[in-house]
Inverse folding.
C-alpha cells in the first residue's frame, strides 16, 4: 500500500501510427494552429502601434511590457482569456482581450495571477465582459491561493456600453467583492497604480495589502472633468487623487515611486517576501522529468477529424513524467481511463475518454462505441473523483466525449441516477480540477467531466475542440423530427415544402458547426483559453505546480494513506 504502482505506458510513435497518417494529422493541425497564432498576435497588438507610441510618449510602458518586465527572466506567462470579445464590435470600436491581460506568471519563483489593464485599448477601460474576465482570474487565484498582482491603469467603464458591464450579479462591482473574498482567505494582493484609476478603477486597488503609485498615477471616485461640471472647480486629477494625496494624506496607498520600472521592481520585492512554493516539498525529492515518449508527438497522434479514433493511453504516455502511470479500476468502465501520474514531479489524477470500440459487459459479443459514458464508466469516474478529492490529488479531465448512453436499456439501468451521483461528486469536490477539451465536448458528458459550469480552476480548449449539446447533423434531425420518417427521410410530398425542410436542416447544421468553433467559446467566455496541443504538457505542469504551491488551505495526504489504494483493492484485489 505504501507505493504508488506507476508502470510504463505507451509505445514508440512508429508502433502507434504510420508515417503517412502521422504527417497528415500534423499538417492538418498545423494549419489550425497557425490561425490561432495569427489571431493571438492580432489580440496582443491591442489598438495598434499608434496607441503604443502614445503610451511611450508619456514615459510609460504598455500592459504587456509591464508583465514582461515583472516576470522572472527566462520564463513565460500562461495567459487566460486572450480571445474574450475577439471579433466583436462596439459601435466602430473593438476591445481586444476585453481590454485586460490576465495570466499565470512566475515572479521570484512563485506562481502568481497577474491582472493588467491594457492601456493601449481606450486607456484600459472596462468593456462588456471585462469585469467577468477579471473576476474569472480572481476566482483562479482564490481556488489556488495564488498571490494576485494588479497592474492598474484604468479609466473606468467604457461608458457607451455601461449597461453591459455595470449592473448584474457579475457586473463591475463584483470585482471588489472578489477583492474582499481574496483578502478574507489570506491571499496576498499587491497593486501597482500606473495612471488613470477613475471610479471602479480607483476602487480596485484599495483592498490590496500593498498599493504602489507612480508619479503619473491617480485614484479618484470622480475625475477632474466630472468635478468641474458638478462643482465648477478647476483641478487636475493628480491634484484630486495623485500620490501626494493618497500616499501622504488619505493613506489609501502605501508607497510612491518615480516610474513604471521602479514600481515593477518594488512589486517583485514584495513577492520575494512571501512564503516560497511548497511544490518541491510535495515532490518528495522527485525531480520534474519529461515523458519518455515526447509530448510534441501528440500533434500527429490526435486526428483532426473527431470521428477518427486514437489510443487514449498514448496521450497519457506523452503527458506523464517518464511515461509512467497507474491505471485505477481498469476492469470496470472500459470506455474511460482513470489513474494517477506525475506531472512536473507532482501527483495528478487523470480522467480521459477512450475512442473507437470497447467491450460491453452485458453483451460480450457486441462491442459498443467508446467516447460515451455507460453505467460502469460513470460509477468508476465518480468513485475515482471522490477518492482523489479525499486524497488531495489535483484532477485533470481530458475530454473527448460524445455524451451519455441513451435508450431503453440505459434508462432501466438508472443512468440518470448514476450521472447525478457523478455531478454531485464533482460539484462538491474542493481539490483543484483542470479541464481540457481535446476534441468533442458534447451534451451531458461535457458537464459530467467537469466542464466549465462545474467550476474547474481552468478550462482549456485545443483548436480541435467542439463544444455543443450535440453535433450539427444530429441537432438538425432533432429540430425537424416531426417532418422525418424513422430513417430520417423527409416525409413531405410537396416539392416546395421538401426544399424548405432541406434548406432549414442545412442551415441548422451549418449554424451549429459555426457555434462549435473554439474561438466562439473563447469569445463569450465559455472556455478560458485556446492552446496549441504542443503546449499542453507545459500548461499542465504549470497548473499542477500551482495546485501544490500554497500550504494549509486544503488537504494533501501522503501517498501511503491514499484512499485510492483502498479503492484499487476493493475493485480488483485478490479475493
Amino acid at each position: 500500500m505504501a507505493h504508488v504502482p506507476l508502470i510504463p505506458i505507451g509505445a514508440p510513435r512508429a508502433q502507434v501510427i504510420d508515417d503517412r497518417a502521422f504527417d497528415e494529422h500534423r499538417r492538418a493541425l498545423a494549419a489550425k494552429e497557425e490561425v490561432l497564432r495569427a489571431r493571438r498576435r492580432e489580440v496582443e497588438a491591442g489598438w495598434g502601434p499608434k496607441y503604443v507610441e502614445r503610451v511611450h510618449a508619456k514615459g510609460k510602458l504598455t500592459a504587456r511590457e509591464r508583465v514582461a518586465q515583472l516576470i522572472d527572466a527566462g520564463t513565460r506567462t500562461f495567459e487566460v482569456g486572450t480571445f474574450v470579445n475577439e471579433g466583436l464590435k462596439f459601435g466602430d470600436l473593438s476591445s481586444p482581450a476585453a481590454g485586460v491581460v490576465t495570466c499565470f506568471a512566475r515572479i521570484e519563483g512563485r506562481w502568481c495571477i497577474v491582472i493588467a489593464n491594457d492601456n493601449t485599448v481606450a486607456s484600459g477601460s472596462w468593456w462588456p465582459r471585462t469585469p467577468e474576465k477579471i473576476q474569472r482570474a480572481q476566482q483562479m487565484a482564490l481556488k489556488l491561493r495564488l498571490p494576485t498582482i494588479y497592474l492598474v491603469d484604468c479609466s473606468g467603464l467604457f461608458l457607451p456600453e455601461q449597461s453591459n458591464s455595470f449592473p448584474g450579479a457579475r457586473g463591475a462591482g463584483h470585482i471588489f467583492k472578489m477583492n474582499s473574498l481574496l483578502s478574507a482567505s489570506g491571499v496576498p494582493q499587491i497593486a501597482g497604480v500606473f495612471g488613470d484609476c477613475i471610479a471602479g478603477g480607483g476602487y480596485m486597488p484599495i483592498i490590496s495589502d500593498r498599493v504602489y503609485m507612480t508619479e503619473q498615477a491617480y485614484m479618484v471616485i470622480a475625475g477632474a472633468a466630472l468635478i468641474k461640471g458638478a462643482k465648477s472647480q478647476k483641478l487636475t486629477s493628480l491634484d484630486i487623487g495623485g500620490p501626494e494625496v493618497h500616499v501622504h494624506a488619505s493613506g489609501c496607498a502605501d508607497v510612491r515611486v518615480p516610474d513604471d520600472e521602479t514600481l515593477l521592481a518594488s512589486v517583485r520585492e514584495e513577492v520575494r517576501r512571501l512564503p516560497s512554493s511548497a511544490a518541491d516539498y510535495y515532490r518528495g525529492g522527485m525531480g520534474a522529468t519529461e515523458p519518455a515518449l515526447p509530448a510534441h508527438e501528440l500533434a500527429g497522434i490526435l486526428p483532426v477529424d473527431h470521428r477518427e479514433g486514437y489510443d487514449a493511453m498514448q496521450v497519457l504516455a506523452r503527458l506523464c513524467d517518464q511515461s509512467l502511470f497507474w491505471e485505477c479500476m481498469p476492469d470496470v468502465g472500459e470506455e474511460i481511463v482513470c489513474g494517477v501520474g506525475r506531472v512536473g514531479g507532482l501527483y495528478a489524477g487523470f480522467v480521459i475518454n477512450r475512442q473507437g470500440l470497447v467491450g460491453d459487459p452485458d453483451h460480450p459479443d457486441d462491442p459498443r462505441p467508446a467516447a460515451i459514458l455507460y453505467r460502469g464508466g460513470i460509477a468508476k469516474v465518480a468513485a475515482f473523483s471522490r477518492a482523489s478529492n479525499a486524497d488531495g490529488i489535483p484532477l485533470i479531465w481530458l475530454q473527448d466525449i460524445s455524451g451519455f448512453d441513451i435508450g431503453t436499456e440505459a434508462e432501466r439501468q438508472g443512468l440518470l441516477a448514476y450521472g447525478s451521483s457523478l455531478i454531485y461528486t464533482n460539484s462538491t469536490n474542493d481539490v483543484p480540477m483542470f479541464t481540457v477539451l481535446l476534441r468533442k465536448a458534447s451534451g451531458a458528458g461535457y458537464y459530467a467531466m467537469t466542464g466549465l459550469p462545474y467550476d474547474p480552476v481552468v478550462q482549456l480548449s485545443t483548436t480541435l475542440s467542439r463544444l455543443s449539446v450535440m453535433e450539427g447533423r444530429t441537432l438538425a434531425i432533432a429540430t425537424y423530427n416531426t417532418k422525418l420518417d424513422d430513417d430520417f427521410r423527409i416525409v413531405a410530398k410537396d416539392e416546395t415544402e421538401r426544399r424548405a425542410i432541406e434548406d432549414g436542416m442545412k442551415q441548422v447544421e451549418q449554424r451549429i458547426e459555426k457555434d462549435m468553433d473554439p474561438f466562439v467559446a473563447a469569445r463569450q467566455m465559455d472556455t478560458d483559453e485556446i492552446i496549441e496541443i504542443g503546449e499542453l504538457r507545459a500548461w499542465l505542469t504549470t497548473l499542477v505546480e500551482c495546485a501544490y504551491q500554497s500550504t494549509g488551505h486544503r488537504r494533501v495526504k501522503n501517498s501511503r494513506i491514499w484512499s485510492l489504494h483502498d479503492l484499487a483493492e476493493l475493485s480488483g484485489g485478490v479475493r
User: Anything to note?
Assistant: The chain has a mean pLDDT of 92. Residues 9 and 317 are 6 Å apart (CA to CA).
